[in-house]
Amino acid sequence: MKYIYSGVHTRYQLYRMLKQVTKKPISFFEVSAAYAKAQAFMQGGQKSLKESYKMAFDPEENLSVVFLGRPYTVLSSHTNKRIPDIFAKWGIKSFFQDMLPKGDMETIRPLLDELHLNYVAKILEAAETAGGIQGLYPVFLTSFKCAPDSFILDAFKQVMAAHNKPYLILELDEHDSSVGYETRIEAAIRSFQNHYGQLEKRGSNDYTRVNPDLSKGVRGKNVVIPNWDPITCRLLAENLRREGVKAYLIQETSTTIQKSLKFNTGQCIPVTAIAQGFIECMEANHLDPEHTVLWMSHSELACNIKLYPHFIQSHLKAHGHGMEKAGVFVGALSFIDISLRAGMNAYFAYLFGGLLRKMICRVRPYEVIPGTTDTLTQQAMEIFCDAMAGHRTKESAVSQVTELFSTIEIRGERRMKVALFGDLYVRDNDVMNQDMIRVIEAHGGEAITTPYNDYAKMIAQKYFKKWFSEGKYMNLLSYKSLLAAMNTLEKRYLTYFERVLSDVHHTYDDDPEAILSAYHLSTENTGESMDNILKVHYIKKHYPDVGLLVQLSPAFCCASLITESMMEKIEAVTGVPMVCVTYDGTGGDKNRQIIPYLKYPRAPLPPLREKEIA
Questions:
Q1: What pairs with residue 65 in β-bridges?
Q2: Total domains, the chain
């Protein structure tokens, strides 16, 4: 990640880790001195690389290429398929992006400011620099289905278009043959030579696709909200309407997701699904694109979410047909930027939505009269929407909804508890996850979900420590104060939910460093993969009889793949089997893989307790 830690912090962490593995005593001053020496060595090496470029690059002699990409892809002969050697056979000098001089980045500054992925930023900076150097042509080496690269590829292409310069993108996979690469390299060299021989090499200087203008506000606009959770998002939309915002909710279908795939070139499925859903929402509601914006949440996660707004805005521009006039607005997940009241009520929308889903999962598998829970859920949604709209008090709404659910007649039965976690867009999205909860219930299980208020408490300590280390004291103070205030306010509502749920007062104060250390992770590692570990820890802590962990993921999601790679370790630590279900948008029964785990549990289900039978 592109986070800058202080030198003292880095030195201390190195000292702390080395102290645990060295056999002889080591002092902080020794580590600090070694770190300073290593930094000096690195700076000297960087300077030497740039000097080598200055001496070797000669545009009057012949054209040259510069390789862009991650160093572990470009610089290793095992991963780069010896592509630099192929250029050498053609007599073409090649350089690496770190060798280029530092250019003026103002033309792409808006996008760079949104990039918290270090190598992605370096690649784009090198592309902008190379674009302005006559006789130097970029060759972008990217790994097969690298999601961060899939986002930056469009920006890379637009930078090259702005400079009117040809380029080559080679996607590397695990196959050993270089024949396909040789053919493409030969064609690229001919293209480079044709351009190199031209006298006129002016570019278009059009950076609007690289730096799309995002909307500055929502007042007077139609505001469309992504529908990652049909319960909570409906309450959020009602909350916005109370503030005078003309809010619409995307009505995503499986067809929406399938249609979005034609625009997907390796990005996580949710981003193109949201873009397609936004277009369909405008068409279905006859909204004027010029007066319509898509609301997207600001994110500091170590993921591609921060690039979603730029990608979608560029996608709208490319789509045309009037949709290029629509905007994308980046707002706070808390809606605090709309108004203080909107921020407070948004918290309760997340709270009520998450707990309503939890009540559904707790009651519906055991209902004596099938369909009762679904009928009362519809009534509950109307009651909560009235509360969000300000037509009744939130306390009366919670009281009535929990009273309704407490009247549902249920039977005593033991079912396997199946905990759902994973990508936030997929986990509670009944369309994207193909109604996973009902699949679990249909095959004898009970789904365990995580309400948003619990999720916030799970990850809070980790982010508070991280922000303190990074010196982001305003983030720390504001979010810590907000969470403390809302925790106090929610207590009176949680009492009502106890009518149905016995687990609304769980604590989440275990040391995150201790939790992550079991997986050889540190608190500096942030993002959805690390959050998943915390979720798994607390699921096992609060539901010791959980029988199955299920990660729900969209295709091309890096965080999900990283979590999946830790699956063996997760099973070893928790003692619970884990299944990863990935949705690629093409349909098919993706959920069928969990059925054997439900039919043939690894451990026998414990007997019903007397209270549960009653």
A1: 94, 137
A2: 4
Q: Which tens digit of pLDDT belongs to each residue from 353-393? A: 999 999 999 999 999 999 999 999 999 999 999 999 999 99
> How far apart are the C-alpha atoms of 200 and 204, rounded to whole Å?
12
Amino acid residing at 386: D
- In the block, which residue shows the tokens 């109370």? 242
Helix, strand, coil content of the chain in percent (nearest 5): 55, 10, 35
| Domain carrying residue 186 | 57-196
Identify which of 417, 413, 443 has the alpha carbon closest to the alpha carbon of residue 603: 417
Q: How far apart are CA 380 and CA 386, in angstroms?
A: 10
Residue 376 lies in a domain: no
The structure tokens listed for 551 are: 């990660």
Per-residue pLDDT tens digits for 253-269: 999 999 999 888 888 89
pLDDT of residue 538: 95
Residues 160 and 231 in one domain: no
Q: How distant, in Å, are the alpha carbons of 270, 304, 502, 562 from that of 527?
A: 17, 10, 30, 11
Beta bridge partners, 327, equal 293
Contact (CB, 8 A) for 226 and 250: yes
Continuous segment of H or E residues that includes residue 261: none
Alpha carbon dihedral 91, 96, 117, 570, in 10-degree steps, equals: 80
Rounded to a whole number of angstroms, the distance between the first and last alpha carbons of the chain is 53
What's the CA gap between 363 and 381, in Å, rounded?
16
Domain end position, chosen among 146, 179, 196: 196
Q: Are strands 416-422 and 222-225 parallel, antiparallel or unpaired?
A: unpaired
Phi, psi of 577 (to 5 degrees): -65, 150
Contact between residue 187 and residue 161 where contact means Cβ atoms under 8 Å apart: no
